[in-house]
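Appendix C reproduces, verbatim, an entry submitted by the partner laboratory led by Prof. M.T., so that reviewers can inspect both the input and the predicted structure.
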Amino acid sequence: MKKTFLSICCLGLFALSNVACAGQAKANKEVAAATDETNVTAVEADSTGYIVKVGQMAPDFTITLTDGKQVSLSSLRGKVVMLQFTASWCGVCRKEMPFIEKDIWLKNKSNPQFMLIGIDRDEPLDKVLAFMKATGVTYPMGLDPGADIFAKYALRQSGITRNVLIGRDGKILKLTRLYNEEEFSSLVQAIDEELKK
């Protein structure tokens, strides 16, 4: 009887230790996975916070424009597409947007092979409409609640303004960050060259 009791106790302890070890192993795997995910993100992000690279396919998304229409990036395949990530609170965006309007949009808006979409980071429609009016832009703007579209291209906590130029094949041709005249000129030139092809 004593031996049976001891055997049952030993089996019980053995079973408990296996459950505890399995739980610890699972917890260790989850921690390792979280750590790996953090490391992968850190490795993939460049010094400006982009997690996409020139030459790779641009991540697809669907956006609702200020006029209520929905557009998916994949539906624009075959066109040269420029995405401009912006927000009303961004001073650099406000500085850059009139140049985008004048030097890119007004020059190319009648070209059926070109599309420009401003993507406003996490602001309501009324604020975006007021922002467009204040900056004088007429190019299409869309809403990005929660910055979920932005997070497909850059670390969610990283800043704007950013421009992404996408070729007819859906691959990224150019990435810009902030605004300086030289980089902006090279963006305009890249759009012109791509539209000539």
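The mean pLDDT is 85. Additional entries are available on request from the coordinating office.
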